[in-house]
Design brief:
By secondary structure, the protein is mainly alpha-helical. It has two domains: about 100 residues, Helix-hairpin-Helix base-excision DNA repair enzymes (C-terminal) (Endonuclease Iii, domain 2, Orthogonal Bundle); about 100 residues, Orthogonal Bundle (Endonuclease III, domain 1). Helix content is about 60%, strand content about 0%. It has twelve helices and no strands. Helix 2 packs antiparallel against helix 8 and helix 9 crosses helix 11. Bound molecules: iron/sulfur cluster. The site of iron/sulfur cluster has 14 residues, from helix 9 and helix 12. Iron/sulfur cluster binds next to helix 9 and helix 12.
Length: about 220
């Protein structure tokens, strides 16, 4: 994979370096919070996680994976058989169709295995760029940086990007962080968004990033004016 060609300013690079260091100190053990034991389970759990929380997904996947442990089992089922296992999460009817159709494609085209190529992953039903990035980086350790709602919000607030389009945000972040860190940066930004920089109540007063964060500076300026 080629490094992106965008060239951020030295000031922005320095900010990114500080963010990287502080997040590493704050969340040394950051990891994917979707419970899984193999790439297939991660793929299914990530499809299920659209517009719901990882905690909700983790409640349903133990029984789901016990009954359908691999792509072969899932491919032989019908979506209606899946629904009782996942009906407590949002969009469960569509998601049941997606995971069965995905399992069938995995069996037909990839011998029941999850492919390691982005292009192949993105042809699977229910799999977009974000899900493909999660699987590539978390399951296979490949350089990919998934942008979800937490990554988007935290990156905006800090001032790492001004883009709204997730693909542009992904490219901006890739240009700021070393390729070897893309996967862990994704997890650390998510952890920060969940634990300290929530949508409704960011805890700027105790945040170790506040000195380089645009949002915190704006809040401070507003208080002082
Ligand atoms: S200072 Fe506030 S807005 Fe900035 S990253 Fe920390 S919690 Fe989020």
């Amino acid at each position: 994979m080629k490094e992106p060609t965008r060239r951020p300013s030295p000031k922005l690079k320095k900010k990114a370096r500080i963010v990287l260091e502080r997040l590493a100190e704050l969340y040394p053990d950051a990891h994917c919070e979707l419970n899984h034991e193999n790439p297939f389970q991660l793929l299914v759990a990530t499809i299920l996680s659209a517009q719901t929380t990882d905690a909700k997904v983790n409640e349903v996947t133990p029984a789901l994976f016990a009954r359908f442990p691999d792509a072969f089992n899932l491919a032989q089922s019908e979506p209606e058989e899946i629904q009782p296992y996942i009906q407590s999460i949002g969009l469960y009817k569509n998601k049941s169709k997606h995971i069965v159709a995905t399992a069938r494609l995995l069996v037909e085209k990839y011998g029941g295995e999850v492919p390691r190529e982005r292009e192949a992953l993105e042809t699977l039903p229910g799999v977009g760029r974000k899900t493909a990035n999660v699987v590539l980086s978390t399951a296979f350790g490949l350089p990919a940086l998934a942008v979800d709602t937490h990554v988007l919000r935290v990156s905006h607030r800090i001032g790492l990007t001004t883009a709204d389009d997730p693909l542009k945000v992904e490219k901006d972040l890739q240009a700021l962080f070393p390729m070897s860190e893309w996967g862990i940066v994704h997890h650390r930004l998510i952890w920060h968004g969940r634990r300290m920089c929530s949508a409704r109540a960011p805890q700027c007063a105790i945040c170790p990033i506040r000195e380089v964060c645009d949002f915190a500076k704006e809040q401070n300026d507003a208080r002082c004016s």
